[in-house]
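Interim report, section 4.2 (structural modelling).
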Amino acid sequence: MVNESEIARLARDIRKASRIVALSGAGMSVESGIASFRGPGGLWEKYDPEEYGHINTLRYEPAKAWIMLSDMQREILKAKPNKGHYALAELERMGKLRAIITQNVDGLHHVAGNRDVIEFHGHLQSVSCMDCGHRVPSADIDLDKLPPRCSKCSGPVKPDAVFFGEAIPSDALMRSHREASTCDLMLVIGTSAMVYPAASMPDIAHDAGARVVEINPSETPLTGRISAYIVKGPAGDVLERVVQQLKSLPA
Ligand code: NAD
Ligand code: ZN
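Predicted structure of the assembly:
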């Protein structure tokens, strides 16, 4: 159980800040039933995501890449936002949260109601043909017939997500850089901060003078170096309680 004084401290920091940006990772969606990469029960226990999720595996061994992708697709298709996603949507409605930079590909921040979401690694909501570009919703794919093929030209298909070995789309990179370098508080939620360049956003914020606070049950390479403190607990529980506290603070 997270200490009440930690919750109150974060609520006060949010009250004081005027430009807040969140950086979210796979831990944000663990309470929605989606496995992370590195946590307990994470995909890492079954596969090496940097191998199965590498663009060359998708190109040259698509059946292998789709083993992990279909596992993620199945989880994502049935997942719903959790208390943490809804708390961030509430923070945006309160005018406190400027943007979310998310490494997640599950689309749950949008479903929860956040409007300004930078999907740093794209999303798994749709797939595109690698030969003719034809795009279809992921829900239309038959996950029992792998690897899926394009319905127009039978070419190989790729989720509209960024794979290991691929560059981050420049608009997402530029916007994230701008938000990170102009915020005064960055909330780093549920990320192991090991996948670059997303993991450099807290450094950019810190170097530009922002306070960086982590919400994560476990410490990360940022802890004690970049982050001012870490609220150790699950994102859903922590964020819901922080927003409740915030509402009870005097204006
Ligand atoms: P990661 O798997 O490397 O790390 C997950 C982090 O979440 C860990 O630090 C862990 O301690 C923390 N965590 C576990 N449960 C938590 C909870 N309830 N609340 C808060 N934190 C919790 O994840 P990453 O740093 O995001 O990097 C992995 C890459 O994997 C990203 O690029 C992302 O695109 C991709 N990924 C996305 C999803 C998704 O879309 N939901 C799922 C798995 C992986
Ligand atoms: Zn095609």
